[in-house]
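User: Sequence in, structure out. Go.
Assistant: Echoing your sequence, followed by the structure tokens.
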Amino acid sequence: MSRTPRQWLSFACVLSLFGAAAATFCVGVAQEKAEKKEDPALERARREVRLLDDVYKTSIVLVTTHYVQDENGLAAGSAFRKLFEAMKEKGWHEARLLDATGQPYNDENLPKEGFEKRAVKEILAGKPSYDEVITEDGKRYLLAATIVPVVMDKCIMCHENYREVPKGKAIGAIGYKLEIQE
């Protein structure tokens, strides 16, 4: 079957469109891979958040287990708010408790608009953590939030509103802000 010049031109146009689509797809895949390309500084910051999170949460559980005897004692959360303030004052990082129940122990724990509200929403949806990268004054920062679940019965001494919350369910988060050290 012989083709007319017009048919060959149409065929060439179709091939050209397929080629352009394939090229666009390949460029898109390459861009996606480049965006996912490892960012060593960001991965170090994420590792630091995991380390801090383990230190803070392990310490809160230990303090609650061994030192909180009744509702008149200093709650571990209150003590750690002071620790978070000290870390910020010394320039290490920022950390704060974020309520996810809508009934905060302290109104200062309500999530702020933007990142904190998005993070709490993601954590309540089942994610153990959530993070974003921002730039302020020419520096990159990692904003991260990690789940704070109900882990022990003693929590109810200071937080009666957690009585019906199943162990392991998110009641809040710890929000972090760390400079990404390039």
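User: And one key feature?
Assistant: The chain has two domains: 1-37, 39-179.
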